[in-house]
Structure to design on (167 residues):
């Protein structure tokens, strides 16, 4: 990603694949995702997916998901590719091996207009709950400040959705 300069979006299950403090990290996609991540998916021209199942929590209405994008999907399970979302380029392979092979041929991209647009969206639509009382955002930020390398385990439901929004 640093080699190409491509912005990175994760699913909740993929969170942690890239540090959330990395400048290329956009956020989570889907029902528990951010405005910016969902907007980036809706407006991208190429969607490169690694191990994504494309369930309804990620896609919303399938007929409206990334309609302008050419889709490349890497997954070790051939049955997972094009199961819910039709892809243009299927790659059945182990993710690490496929990424290493692709990076060997990768070149820097000149997509500053796109990354600038995403940066504007981040400024215009920050993830915040305001400053009224104690909020989940304040708790997560405090944990991040106190424990630099903490591993946080969460349950499903609203606590999972809220916790995954913050770095």
């Amino acid at each position: 990603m640093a080699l190409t300069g491509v912005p990175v979006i994760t699913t909740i299950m993929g969170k942690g694949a890239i540090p959330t403090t990395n400048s290329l990290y956009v956020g989570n996609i889907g029902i528990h995702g951010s405005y910016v991540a969902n907007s980036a998916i809706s407006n991208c021209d190429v969607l490169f997916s690694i191990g994504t199942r494309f369930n309804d929590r990620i896609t919303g209405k399938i007929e409206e998901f990334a309609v302008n994008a050419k889709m490349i999907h890497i997954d070790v399970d051939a049955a997972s590719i094009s199961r819910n979302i039709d892809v243009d380029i299927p790659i059945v392979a182990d993710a690490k091996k496929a990424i290493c092979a692709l990076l060997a041929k990768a070149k820097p991209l000149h997509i500053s207009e796109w990354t600038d647009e995403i940066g504007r969206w981040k400024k215009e639509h920050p993830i915040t709950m305001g400053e009224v009382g104690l909020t989940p955002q304040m708790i997560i930020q405090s944990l991040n400040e106190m424990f630099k390398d903490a591993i946080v385990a969460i349950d499903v439901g609203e606590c999972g959705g809220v916790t995954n929004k913050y770095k």
